[in-house]
User: What shape does this take?
Amino acid sequence: MDTRDQLLDAAEQLFAERGYAGTSLRAITHLAQANLAAVNYHFGSKENLLCSVVRRRVVPINQRRLEQLDAAEAAAGPAPVPVNRILRALIEPVFEAGNGDGALGIYFPRLIGWLYSESITQIEELYEAEFSEVFSRFVDALAKSLPKHPRSDLYWFIQFTLGMLVTVLMTGDRIGLCTTGHCTQEPPEMLVHRLVGFAEGGFLGRDRANTAPGSRTDTTRKI
Amino acid sequence: MDTRDQLLDAAEQLFAERGYAGTSLRAITHLAQANLAAVNYHFGSKENLLCSVVRRRVVPINQRRLEQLDAAEAAAGPAPVPVNRILRALIEPVFEAGNGDGALGIYFPRLIGWLYSESITQIEELYEAEFSEVFSRFVDALAKSLPKHPRSDLYWFIQFTLGMLVTVLMTGDRIGLCTTGHCTQEPPEMLVHRLVGFAEGGFLGRDRANTAPGSRTDTTRKI
DNA sequence: GTCTATAGTCAGATAGAC
DNA sequence: GTCTATCTGACTATAGAC
Assistant: This one.
């Protein structure tokens, strides 16, 4: 089914560039050099096509996340896994997604960003199914490494971390535009490094604040 | 011009809920109880309407940000402003936007999220005009407080911080859905507190890592 | 499996009466 | 300023020949 794959590739690219609502089946079939009717033949509907596009990438990403976490836990033995190792297991697989597809891999990360804002019912169900295990495994690992943190904080912190990740992915090559030219596009490994470093600081923040009273922290207004 | 304001309010709500591409002028005029032709009469086009919606909120937000930063710098005198005070000046005004409008203020934050993913030419120009001063002022303040950080890092960190902020805003009341029920909606002050705390940890992170060699940080793999 | 043709709907924009 | 009516085009989806 060559047409099917070409449709998936074209849809991935266009959904990433223009969003779901902003992309027409005409544009997809044109880019895929397929007939307008092909989408409905192969996928049944535009929404099903989106789900197929997403599932094709998300399933391997989450597999890879769990593999990395498994490996890190095995390496740590009974000790807790270092926080930045956990965060790298969460973040890095997203940037590796589609690396085998050459130029194609650049589109999916940005699509993830769109999915964050466009709430499409089938996609939300897909998320529920695909992310619940990943989510609980990572929170468990973080709770072991950061026993002083309330579990609810860890959930929020993961949200924050994924939020940073998603917006970096969304921005993509427009990063210079968003920062009036002060940031330039960087290789994925560098972005992973930056994100992991910043998030690690966020997760450890409370420890640092408690143990370093002389630090430049304004404590005059806590809620 | 009562109709004009009703159009702005309705557009703000619907753009926030469905995005720009996903919202029709028919839906906007219906909600505003105005005629379909009213949008083009008052604003000229759908895109101009969006710009008016955005400008109405962004201008006061950025004013407030600069006011808070001015106040913090005045209070600090010659000393650098505490990092978390700078971050609060950056984050808090967004949550205050539209507070005077009662229930209406809940929509704009989510719209900001959409604008992050939907790249609309006029909006990007508006950003360029409205954000350049804010951006440079905040980077200057942060550079003074964190002299060891390369300036390019500070730009990235601000991007990360705004990214967290935006995704929290986008998620809005769907936060429970995205975290399989482990996070629940919280009052704005609490969100500001969480965001500022996490971001502060991220900004100070490098200092902490350098000065606390015994911390739970995996240094086996730096890029 | 792939195509043409088209149904049926909705979009943004505008002309012109009032 | 507001309305009705309508233009023009694009959209998803489907029916049916090949």
